[in-house]
Amino acid sequence: MENLLSGGGVVHYYGKILDTISADHYLEKLLSEIEWRNDEAYMMGKHFITKRKVAWYGDKPFEYSYSNTVKKALMWTDALIELKHTAEQVSGETYNSCLLNLYHDGNEGMAWHSDGEKDLKKDGAIGSMSFGAERKFAFKHKTTRETVYVFLEHGSLLVMKGSTQTNWLHRLPPTKKITTARVNLTFRTIVE
Q1: What number is the average pLDDT over the span 93-118?
Q2: What's residue 70's pLDDT?
Q3: d(CA 99, CA 149)
Q4: Cα–Cα distance between 128 and 91 in angstroms, integer?
C-alpha cells in the first residue's frame, strides 16, 4: 500500500471498500439513526456553534476533549459496529471510538488542524470512512508546507497513523461545487 505522505507520517487510501448499494444503505442509516448535534468550540474567549453536525460514539462513555469542549461517547449503533469491523478488517488496526461529522453541503468544511488530543493513543491510527458527496481532502506538512490532496469517494477508507498528526495538518476545504451531504466517520483509539 502506497504512503501518500513523503515523510514524517503514514496515510493509506484504500479507495472504495464498500460497493455503491452498501454505501447508500449505510449513508441512509447514518443520517437517520445517529444523534447529530451542532458542534461547539471555544476559541479566544468566544463560543462558536458550527453548521456542521457531529456525534461521538464508543465502547464506553469515553470523554473526548477538543476546542475546549468535552463530549461523552454514546453506545455504538448496529450500523457503526458493522462499519468499525469493516474498517478494522481492511486496515488491520483496532478502534474503540468514532467521531462522526455531517457536512450538509460543500459550504461546510474543516480548517487546517491535526488530531493530537491527549485522549487519543499517541501515533495511533485514525480510520476515516466517507459517505455521500465526494470531497477533496488536503494534507500540509507543518515545516516544509508541502501539500498533498486526495478525493474521498462514497464508501471509501483513508487511514492516518504514525507521526502524521505530529508532522502534518489536514483539512476539508469548502467548495461551492458540492450541493449534497457528506458523512465522515473517524474511528479512533481513546486511551484511558
Answers
A1: 93
A2: 79
A3: 22
A4: 11
Report the C-alpha gap between 168 and 144 in whole angstroms.
10
The band of 47, judged by pLDDT with boundaries at 50, 70 and 90, is confident
Q: Which three three-digit cell numbers place residue 15?
A: 479507495
- Global pTM? 0.93
- 168 touches 5 (CB < 8 A): yes
Question: Percent of the chain, pLDDT > 90?
Answer: 80
Q: How many C-beta atoms lie closer than 10 Å to residue 159's C-beta?
A: 22
Please name the residue that has the C-alpha cell 501518500: 4
DSSP 64: E
3-state secondary structure of 124: coil
Q: Is 165 helix (H, G, I), strand (E, B) or coil?
A: helix
| pLDDT beyond 70 at 68 | no
Q: With 0-12 CB in 10 A as exposed, 13-18 as middle and 19+ as buried, what is 180? A: exposed
Q: Is the pLDDT of residue 65 over 70?
A: yes
Give me the sign of the Cα torsion angle 36, 135, 88, 5. negative
Whether 76 and 62 have beta carbons less than 8 Å apart is answered as no
